[in-house]
Amino acid sequence: MPKPIRINRHGAHDIAIEWDNGQTVAYPARFVRLNCPCAQCEDEVTGKRIVQDSMLPILTYPTKIEHVGRYAIQIFWSDSHSTGLFTWEKLWELADKIDDWKGSIKLPKHSLQ
Ligand SMILES: [Zn+2]
Fold first, then answer.
1. pLDDT the model gives residue 82
2. Cα-to-centroid distance, 42 and ligand 1 (Å)
3. List of the chain residues with pLDDT < 50
4. How far apart are CA 66 and CA 54, in angstroms?
5. CB 75 within 8 A of CB 62
6. HSE-up of 90 (CA within 13 Å, CB side)?
């Protein structure tokens, strides 16, 4: 599994991760928030998602990103949520799901910024 070399802002709100395999992935902020792995957002036993798109403000974005050791980042969100730790493994796994998520959006893309 690759590891991040650099984690930056992408555009106004999104997150770009440069991986050590040469790939750079732009993660839409809302997509990352919806995939928060903490116990408030995902049922620890069943793995079922608790946080739903309709529960988030239209504009949801990271206000702060902090490194946790050498294995994860903690993201502080504009909806005051910050308990999720996004491990490299989780972020790498999410990279593959971005296109599907974009395809499932019903709102016009510009309104998600
Ligand atoms: Zn969460």
1. 97
2. 7
3. 113
4. 26
5. yes
6. 16
H/E run at residue 74? strand 72-77
Q: Which pLDDT score is estimated for 110?
A: 58
Provide the pLDDT for residue 66. 96
Distance (angstroms) between ligand 1 centre and the Cα of 81 equals 7
- Domains of the chain, with CATH numbers? 29-112 (3.30.2020.30)
Label residue 63 left, alpha or beta by phi (over 0 means left) and psi (-120 to 50 means alpha). Answer: alpha
Q: How far is CA 3 from the centre of its chain?
A: 16
CA–centroid distance, residue 38 to ligand 1 (Å): 4
pTM: 0.89
The Å distance, Cα 48 to ligand 1 centre, comes to: 13
- 41: CA distance to ligand 1 center in Å? 4
